[in-house]
Prior knowledge:
A three-stranded antiparallel beta sheet has the order 1-3-2. It is globular. α1 (18-32) crosses α2 (45-55) and α2 (45-55) crosses α4 (66-79). The chain starts with 17 loop residues before the first helix and ends with a strand. The longest helix is centred in the first third of the chain and has 15 residues, at 18-32. The protein has helices at residues 18-32, 45-55, 57-60, 66-79, and strands at 39-41, 83-91, 98-106. It has one domain. It has four helices and three strands.
Amino acid sequence: MEQEEGTTLLRKRLPPHAVGDATIAVLAEQRRKGWPGDLVTWGDLGTLDAVGRRSGFYDLHPSLHVLDAHIRLLNALEQDTRFEKFLFRCVDSNGVRERWVRAFRLRTL
């Protein structure tokens, strides 16, 4: 980006709860469709893409690789106190490879 003399570059940011609000809306929409919409995990491509579109994140960062975008969306959920973080165990179909991924669930009041 070029910068005019005497001006400063501003980082493109969303409002603080934009990702959390979008996640709540996407999960509610999934529940209305009959899906088990109660958590968001790494690798949940459809949900994370819907959150990125609804929150405006993809509009601010159109050239960001999709996996990097998903990492940033999960990082934003980690900062939002309305969500609780836990680790979710994933095993491949052969049962050979195992990994733990971040997952977020809306806190119940």
